[in-house]
Amino acid sequence: MCIAQEKSDPMEHNQDVENELMRLRGASDDRLRAYDRERGARRIQWCQTQRSTATAGDPLERAYRLLLQKLEIKEDQAPVVRKDETTIVFHSRNFCPTLAACTILQLDTRRVCRLYNEKSIDALVKQVDPRLAFSRNYEIIRPYSEYCEESISMK
To answer: Up-side HSE of residue 59: CA atoms within 13 Å toward CB?
Structure first.
């Protein structure tokens, strides 16, 4: 896998937020689902171009690393808080343009994130192993919590 570069330029963050504002402003549930499907297809395509020859090892760990790489998140921004044979749970505290746009537009992240980006992340982790599933705990999600609690599980 390639090394992700951190977005340290505030202007990049501003552009990411502007892009999210354009997508989210006035978007219906159906439109959010369509964006998620489109994003999922792009993530699968990206993953296929980034394929590592390393297929051995823990698929949960590999999926977590792939997610960090694709979303350009450092491990300390989404630290693993619990891991066992079937699940890895992490707390995402990274800059999130969707969160910023939802805050500006006064949208509920519990609704937007469920419709807008959960299935596309699930599609990404399934590239490591089709038995994997991504999920988010909608009781522990920003801005209602200090972090978003997310997990990857082996089904």
So the answer is: 17
Q: What is the largest CA-CA distance in the chain?
A: 44
Q: The tokens of 61 are what?
A: 């760990």
Tell me the per-residue pLDDT of 123-155, one tens digit each, with 9 for 90 and over.
999 999 999 999 999 999 999 999 999 999 998
Cβ contacts of residue 65 below 8 Å, gap of 6+?
A: 1
Assign a CATH topology to domain 10-154: Muramoyl-pentapeptide Carboxypeptidase; domain 2 (3.30.1380)
Distance CA 94, CA 69 (A): 13
pTM: 0.86
Residue 147: φ, ψ to 5°: -155, 170
Distance CA 45, CA 87 (A): 25
Instruction: Give the Cβ contact number of residue 5 at 10 Å.
Output: 7
For the chain, domain boundaries: 10-154
Q: Which of 16, 54, 47 is nearest to 125 (CA)?
A: 47
Task: Determine the Cα–Cα distance for residues 106 and 147; give it in Å rounded to an integer.
Answer: 18
Give the burial string for 110-140 (b: 16+ CB within 10 Å, else e). eebbbbbbbbbbbbbbbbbbeebebebebee
